[in-house]
Every structure is written in C-alpha cells, then in structure tokens.
Amino acid sequence: MHPILIADDSDALPIWFATPADWSSVREALDAGAAAFAEAAGFVPDAGRHLLLPAEHGGVGGLLFGLGEAGPTRDRLIAGRLAELLPAGFWRFANLPPEPALAVLAILLGAYRFQRYRTVKPPRFRLVVPAGVDGEEVSRLADAVAFARDLVNTPANDLGPAELEQAVRELGAAHGAEVSAIVDDDLLTHGFPLIHAVGKGSVRAPRLIDLVWGDPGAPKLTLVGKGVCFDSGGLDIKPAAAMLLMKKDMGGAAAALALAKLVMERRLPVRLRLLVPAVENAVSGSAFRPGDVYPSHKGLTVEVSDTDAEGRLVLADALALADAEAPDLLIDFATLTGAARVALGPDIAPAFTDDEELASALARHAAATADPLWRLPLWRPYAAGLDSRIADTASVAAGGFAGSIVAALFLSRFVERAKSWLHLDIYAWTPKPKPGRPEGGEASAVRALDSLLVEKFSR
Hints:
elongated; Leucine Aminopeptidase, subunit E, domain 1; six-stranded mixed β-sheet; nine-stranded mixed β-sheet; single chain; Aminopeptidase; 2 domains; alpha/beta
C-alpha cells in the first residue's frame, strides 16, 4: 500500500466530516468538550473549513473538516486538502464521507510532491484505511498518477526522446513487456517521415517507441501518446510565455504510460500495445518549414501549415501504424490544441469518438471517478478546412475556428480499421493548486479510462 496508509491503529485520532445538512448530528457525536470547543470557535462546515479539536488532557484530539453543500458545485476531491492540514500522527475517519474511497485517493493525490531537484519533507501523518475501502486499489491509482506527474514535471534537459524511451523500457521490464524503438534516420527507412520531419531539427534524435504486452490472441488494446518532449514551436516559434510550460508537451505520452502501467498491473486480458512518437520540436537549419510537404506512414501527403502544430503530425504516423492491425480499441492522448483549453479550460479534456456506446460508457466512468471529460463532435463539414492545393491534406485549417475539432478530424484520416477509436485532447497540467491536485503535471483522463477498461475487459 501507499506509505501514508496503514491497516489499523486503535489509537488513531478521528477526522470528523461534516456538511451543513448533517452538522448537528456530527456535533452530537463529538464528546462534550470537543462540541463546546467547536461551538466557541464558530466552526461551520463549509467546503475545506477545518478545526483541530483539543484532547481532554492537552494536545490534539481530532479534526473537524467541512465538505460544504452537497450537489454539482462540490469539489469531490475536497478531502485532498487534508494532505496539507493533518498534523503528524495517526488518523482515521470517524465517520465516512459520501465517497470514502475517493476521499482516501484525494488525500494520497494531494500528498504528492515532485522531489527530483530539491528535498521536500514527506507528509508525517498516516491514515488508517477505512472499512470498505480497498487500500491496495487506491494506492495503485495514486501511484499511476504520481508516475505520470513525475514525467510531466521533469524538465526537457533531463527528459528528451531518449530518456522517454528509457522510461518506457523500464516500465516494460517491470512487467515482462517487449519494447523496441525506431530511431533517427531509421524512421525514414521504416516509413515514418512525419515523426522524422518534426524531430530532425533537434540534436536529440526522434524515435517511435513500441511496447507490446499480453496474450497475442486477446482483444487488442492500443494506446498512443504524444511525446513531444519540448515544443519551441519550430520555425513558427512560440513567444517566451507560451514556451515556458512546453516541457509538458509530452503529457499525452505520460498519460498513456500511466494507463499502460495500470493495465499491466491489473493483468487485464488484453494484448496491449503502447506507441510513443518521441521528438523535440526545435529551431535549426534542418528544422521542417511551413509549406513543406511530407508523405505519411499511411501514404497520404501532408502540407505543413504551421510548425507549431507538430503534435498531430507525429500522431498521424503512430496512429497509422496502430490502425494497421485493426485494434479492438485505439486510444490516443495528446496535449494537442490551445483551442481545447479555450473551450473547456484546464480541468476538462475534450473526447472525440464516433462510437456511441464508448462515448456513453466514457461519460459514465468520468463521472464516477471525478475525472472529467466532455465529448465534442467529429463534425465532418469542418474537414473541408484541411483541403490543400498541393497535397492530400493540410495539417491546419485556415481561420482558427473549432481548432480542437479540426485537429481531431485531421487525425481521423489516419484511422480506418480500428473497431473503436477515442482521441483525447488533454492539458496534462494543473495551473493553480486544488484539493488533490498540486500545481504541476497531471495525469489527465487516466483514472476514467482505467475504470472503463476494467469494466470492458474484465467481464
């Protein structure tokens, strides 16, 4: 289990959860001294409000924590605030919040710290696993999220294409998977010219990383993650402010790795394939240019409309390879468009699929796991904006409208045989700290997809 969790401790201090609706009954359950102290302190159970309660003979005797009003405005990960509030010692839930497993998970997610470059004091509290909560399961989820966060938070000087390949190899070795990579000019030999074009401007060689695990005869699940380890924008260079967070442009790869990790740890009965096109989009004399035309792995020629829209190019080659073996389910993750953030903000990832059953299941699991996603349409008439006068397709439509939809439509041209395809345009970053979500890298959509895959493939 997670190091914060313990199986039992009879002397653990109580955490009392309260809402405006049940505050009176919670107050009655407190001992008389604690109830009087809470009354004198003016405690009200608003979301995130807390009060340390005194012990009878001094010291800390417990903690009151407000959940706020029930309903759609409540942050279902609000218990994550406890990761920063709880003093050292052993703690337990004195009463159960509405979603106890999610509350425990939120605390573990809130306790995450990125420690590669400085010493950060670990949390000194320990939490007793509440009755009915699977401590190993919430630990598994928290570990997968931390794995992705660590990758996204690592700056590009320490996480380039080669280092991302090493991360995949280490993950594969831990689970007995086969991992291979096609590197640099070998990409041209094997027919991946778009990945090569995007990465050739960097001294750090581009590559296509390929992990395979599971029974070859099982249903085929393929994950594709955009692995742009740093995005300068290329010759269509980004302004400095926009470049500052571009270490996170491999957040799609991080999410795909985290989900692959969960699939292998759960030993789901699938033939898993993970594809990561890993590149750095740099500026140099050998960088690809606006207006260049390249063939793709699928055979379609692509006119480069904007070198800062490089992610869809590397994904196109990887998706074409994935699609060639007609997987039962093909999922790609990518920090693809600013338009997605304008439409839905940093917390909600747009999801694209033509599979109505998959879309319905995805919405249900996103809601159940408090890992929000929102379906946007693959509105085919917008694809006309990708027409090119000299190639089979342009990479970007003129005008700038519906950018996330148009990017998804571009990718759809490289997916024909997959029985079901899902594209996720994620942000992979929490810009302001929230309960359970420290500022920094985030494993967007991983928990929702994990829940969906468990249901789909464990029947």
